[in-house]
Design a protein that fits this description.
Layout lengths: L3 H8 L6 H9 L2 E5 L4 E3 L7 E7 L2 E6 L5 E7 L4 E2 L2 H6 L6 E4 L3 E7 H10 L2 H26 L2 H11 L9 H8 L3 H16 L1
Antiparallel strand pairs: 1-8, 2-7, 3-6, 3-8, 4-5, 4-7
Helix pairs in contact: 6-8, 7-8
């Protein structure tokens, strides 16, 4: 398992010695997911977070009409979970599945608590991640209320630059809240304007 990716990620926020790194790595479980395999299904209890080494997950809900609403993509170097279910130990509202073959490191809630006991600086690491996630989610809500579809697409491109050409159009459309047909027209217009 290539652990350098997650160690590099933690070093952006906290300093670890070799023993602390090894202890952290010992608490992670490596898992591979085939395309469309679920990390979490709605109504299950979420008991872990996943750090993506390769591939991509998406988190989404499905409304009563069967329409998918994508809340997050998690490409390489991103964490993903259903925070509500993980912290409350109540059934998840989200589905999380792999958009392509995905390799991830799973950290169970139990192991995360052990990590906090043994290496308290990890509380800082995860606090920063949760704060960043809270800010991003609040901004996303405001963007959906205030920005045009074209502006939301531009925001998607800046947030997920590696996904612009790898994620299916209908997934991007579900994320920004438009139909795939509308996205197709708008995308052509957007690239004409930004490359011209």
């Amino acid at each position: 398992m290539d652990t350098s990716v997650i160690i590099a990620h933690t070093r952006r926020f906290i300093e670890l010695d070799k023993q602390e790194e090894l202890y952290f790595l010992s608490l992670l479980q490596e898992k591979k997911f085939s395309r469309k395999a679920f990390l979490l299904r709605e109504n299950e209890i979420c008991d872990h977070a996943a750090f993506v080494l390769s591939g991509c997950f998406r988190a989404y809900s499905i409304d009563e009409n069967g329409v998918e609403h994508i809340l997050q993509f998690a490409p390489r170097n991103w964490w993903i979970t259903d925070m509500y279910s993980l912290l409350s130990h109540k059934p998840a509202h989200l589905n999380i599945d792999a958009l392509e073959e995905t390799e991830a490191l799973l950290l169970s809630r139990k192991n995360q608590e052990m990590l906090y006991q043994e290496v308290p600086k990890f509380e800082r690491y995860f606090r920063i991640l949760v704060e960043n996630s809270l800010v991003a989610n609040r901004q996303r809500v405001l963007d959906n209320l205030e920005l045009s579809a074209k502006e939301r697409y531009a925001k998607f491109c800046s947030t997920y630059p590696t996904l612009i050409n790898s994620v299916p159009q209908k997934q991007i459309a579900a994320y920004i809240g438009v139909t795939p047909e509308f996205l197709s027209k708008m995308k052509a217009e957007y690239w004409r304007e930004t490359s011209g």
